[in-house]
Amino acid sequence: AAAAAGVEGAGDRAAAAVLGQGTGLVFEDEQLFRLVVCSRCSVSVHLGCYGLEAMPEDPSSWLCARCAANVAVVKCALCTTLEGAYKPTSDRRWVHVLCALWTPRVTFGDVGTLEPVRLKRIDPRRYQLRCVLCTHKNSRYRYGAPIQCSFGHCTRAFHVPCARRAGYQLAMPDDPNRDNFKACCARHLAKTEEPVHLFQNGDVVYARASRSHTFYRARVDEVIRRTFCIVMFEDGTISRDCDRQYITLKTPGATDLTPGTAVDVEWVDGLLYAGVFQGYRQEVKYKVVYDSGHTALHSGKQLVPEADADSIADHICQPVRVPERAFLYDDNVVLDHCRRRSVKNYKALAQGVG
């Protein structure tokens, strides 16, 4: 098979990992979570996801890159989906930001603004791959540069937006300095999900510090269970942590949320965004108390049971212990020396010499 799996991605693509880490959107500046809507095409984007450093002075008149260039109709060079947030390429084409981030060997001229997008380094074999989601298996039609399943030697290929609509796993790098964007097809989704140990109050654990591989000893103080709603919005983006109280049903007479129900979601900016309810997601968080007395909130993936401490022995932060010293000289003399910090010859000082 003309598989392009294993092709290295561009290093600066990871530097522009504005879609966050691990399981969701993560930005150092919480303002980058805010949404801005194009006043012409109505596409909505997070500031951080679209390469914007701050909210425009007049959000009501803000234009996305495509509308600012007065381009009415565009086609992504990497997929078959028409709607979405676009960025210009260095060869005067257009691509989705989502496609650019997940397609190996795609680079950015400026990792801050995410433009222009450079496609010259993409492996030519990738353009010969067939998307299993939007192209019939007997069809000779090929378009775009599909990515492939990251599980083992699986060569199933799919466009990034097609995979998102189908519910495939699109995993973002845990480390923002690594180019580690992975995708997994539905066949191998369950195999890639690592089992998470369930803890109880009072359990002794080792918690991993954020953005490092150092573990600290702690005790589980509280188990917090929450249920979130998964909603796909009109622009194709998906939120997996919508709170039920901010969701209203648009279907007349509907009382319960069922998959496929049209809804409106009140976002953090106070505006309503139309979408379709996809299902529920359960989340378990653990409030832990470190030996130092500090508290923190962790997911099960960030905790290691005390019984498995040997597996992370090299990464456990050991408490600093001051050994007891047996002084051979008079306590008053040594204390006097510690205060002055000027005499270095302890033995001569204890004997009264000098």
Question: How does this model look, in words?
Answer:
With 354 residues, the chain is α+β, with helices and mostly antiparallel strands. Helix content is 11%, strand content 25%. The chain contains seven helices and 18 strands. The strands form six sheets. Strands 11, 12, 13, 14, 15, 16, 17 and 18 form an eight-stranded antiparallel sheet that branches. The chain is globular. The chain starts with 10 loop residues before the first helix and ends with a helix. Mean pLDDT is 76; it is low at 1-27, 174-178 and 321-354.
Topology, pairings included?
Layout (H helix, E strand, L loop, with lengths): L10 H5 L19 E3 L6 E3 L18 H4 L17 E3 L5 E3 H6 L4 E2 L8 E2 L28 E2 L8 E2 L1 H6 L3 E3 L10 E3 L4 H4 L11 E5 L6 E19 L4 E5 L4 E3 L12 E5 L5 E19 L4 E5 L3 E3 L25 H10 L5 H5 L4
Antiparallel strand pairs: 1-2, 3-4, 5-6, 7-8, 9-10, 11-12, 11-18, 12-13, 12-16, 14-15, 15-16, 16-17
* Class based on secondary structure composition and strand pairing: alpha+beta
Percent of residues in β-strands: 25-35%
Number of strands: 18
Average pLDDT, all residues = 76
Oligomer: single chain
Rg of Cα set: 27 Å
Net shape: globular
Keywords:
354 residues; alpha+beta; 7 helices; disordered N terminus
